[in-house]
Amino acid sequence: MLSMERFAGVDALDAAAGTMTVRAGTPLQTVQEAAEAAGFTFGVDLGARGSCQIGGMLATNAGGTRAIRYGMMREQVLGLEAVLADGTVVSSMNRMLKNNAGYDLKQLFIGSEGTLGVVTRAVLRLHPLLAAPATALCRVRDYDAVIALWNRVRTLPEVVSFEAMWPAFYDYVARHTPGVSAPFVGDDGFAVLIECATSAPGGDAHQALETGLAAGIEAGLVEDAVLATSERQARDLWTLREGLAIDALPHLVNFDVSLPTGELGVFAERCEAALRMQWPDAVCLFFGHVGDGNVHIGVSLAGMSDADADALDHCVYAVVRDMGGSVSAEHGIGVLKRPYLANTRSDAEIGLMRRLKAALDPGGILNPGKVL
Fold first, then answer.
1. pLDDT digits (tens, 9 = 90+) for 4-56
2. Does the residue 94 lie in any domain?
3. Residue that terminates a domain, selected from 210, 244, 278
4. SS3 (DSSP) at 37
5. Domain for residue 369, yes or no?
6. How far is CA 187 from CA 122, 190, 291, in A?
7. Which of 269, 261, 301 is nearest to 286 (CA)?
8. Is pLDDT of 167 > 70?
9. 292 and 237 fall within a common domain
10. Residue that terminates a domain, selected from 128, 154, 185
11. How many domains would you assign to the chain?
12. pLDDT, tens digit, 9 for 90 and up, residues 209-221
């Protein structure tokens, strides 16, 4: 086990270039706070910001709730340093936005889950500081309305997040999240969380979001909506979306998959139908970052056996394969998804991955048994 926890800290912040050089063990929250203190925003945000480390986020190419505006971790990196299996230090600490001198070697290590090298430092891109965000929760009747609303909202320059909760998921978290009063009740529609923020002087994210919601209501897409009037209310809306309440369900199995945004509605229907054919009493909950095509699935079975857990994986990933999606949107492959990598990647792609692994780690000592 290799921990980078003690190799942490911000080495440099270049305000003119809008970059920050950090060590791999630096927590995301430390990066965010240092960026904000200098008048910047870091593009990726995760619920585990206090514990997740930059090195791990790079190894898994973490995404989060702001991907529709800033992209994933891969888009936040200008350069990095990594140590290979033989001890070679590959210092590719580029600090320029434009650098086409040869291969972009940093991309080999981002998303490789530590199987090709150990990331030790990185040069991160920073973005203009955002003002206080505007957050709203909307009720819409079906997934077609979710997509129609997304097509309107995505034109707003201020949009940061567009999250959807399928009816059963929203109904569950609305009834089981302590300390939060949900603005809507029942499972008769989708709940959509939208967040806007602007860095433009004089910009008004609240006005932009209010205008967007009004247009959605006028078009018959939004049946009800609440615009947060305080930071506490906005946090409560996000607490519902984060869905920690479902962790109390017995034998919960989680999935993190991606498909084109327009196909998520059909995917959820097919996936739930396939699950219920084998487990009629299963609790199937869908939610996620619909704006970037990422849906999370929680499946709970009373008295689940190991055979059931394996069959659940096979069932869900078969639907993903048949619809041309990915078995891992943002959480990586690791060990558990390794048997299903071929559901998403071609034989030629996997073969090239093996050749890269053999070239950089011929002894197979870096995170053995993961990914391949």
1. 999 999 999 999 999 999 999 999 999 999 999 999 999 999 878 999 999 99
2. yes
3. 244
4. helix
5. no
6. 45, 8, 22
7. 269
8. yes
9. no
10. 128
11. 3
12. 998 899 999 999 9
